[in-house]
């Protein structure tokens, strides 16, 4: 048995789809797959020019823009049809696209909490649709993205290009927010991520007869478009040092942190994972009021 990292952690020849793959964590995932042998990594997003720039700047020979909107079933089916025509199978779907959603009013450091009237007025100024939109991308679209690609994932098992012990897989990028009860965090975001994590566990069980696995990545804080302004509220800067009371690792997450966790799940090394949740957060969850 070859137990070298090279043999265990490569993703040689796989075909992957990464939604939200043009930026941030999705692009980190796409690059990790492309750098370690993936045959093709389709990156999905609504902004074609962002996808093209990302592919051109990284691995243009294997990262392929696949413009589309994950909240539209029609768009998802069109994307699946294109992949079916071009390759005919998929080994890995990473349902990663996500949005932050509205935030409640919270006290500034050292100040009293807002009055109940202030809290309610701020929250009620957000239309219900805006709250629900967070779920559309973060939760509903994860389910429908999986549905749209299930037959191609099944075809990936038939091709068997990863060996008999490796089965096709859906990975959702959820968040430690799904376990956190942090005051001031987005009710819409955190609850949508809790729902996504549970959705994936349910799907892992339901898809057993079809030999398609489902696992979850739950990142902590990574500097991306999504966390931009929020990071500046809790730390000195995207790349600065964080107090260990906020992040025990004393830094934000970085590309190698996501790449390592992705390669573990996506390669032969993670072939025995199904219904698993990998927390990659520098220990942050332990500093929060949380449930895991
Ligand atoms: N950054 C963190 O600290 C952190 C922590 C935990 C979890 N996460 C999760 O990681 C995932 C990626 O977020 P990120 O931090 O990397 O932020 P990001 O750079 O803003 O990435 C979000 C991506 O999702 C895509 N997207 C949004 N709505 C879409 C739609 N309707 N259809 C298709 N694509 C859509 C965006 O592309 P377009 O706008 O071009 O469509 C964008 O590429 C999210 O699920 C997020 O919740 C992030």
Per-chain topology:
Layout: H1 5-9, E1 15-19, H2 24-35, E2 40-45, H3 48-57, E3 63-67, H4 73-86, E4 92-95, H5 116-124, H6 128-159, E5 169-173, H7 187-206, E6 213-219, H8 228-234, H9 255-266, E7 277-280
Parallel strand pairs: 1-2, 1-4, 2-3, 4-5, 5-6, 6-7
Bound molecules: NADP nicotinamide-adenine-dinucleotide phosphate.
Task: Give the proportion of residues in helices.
Answer: 40-55%
Number of domains: 1
Small molecules bound? NADP nicotinamide-adenine-dinucleotide phosphate
CATH topology: Rossmann fold
Q: Count of helices?
A: 9
CATH architectural category: 3-Layer(aba) Sandwich
- Report the span from N to C terminus: 35 Å
Beta percentage is: 5-15%
Mean pLDDT: 95
Q: What structural class do the secondary elements suggest?
A: alpha/beta
Secondary-structure element order, as H and E? HEHEHEHEHHEHEHHE
The counted number of beta strands is 7
Taking pLDDT < 50 over at least 5 consecutive residues as the criterion, the unreliable ranges are none
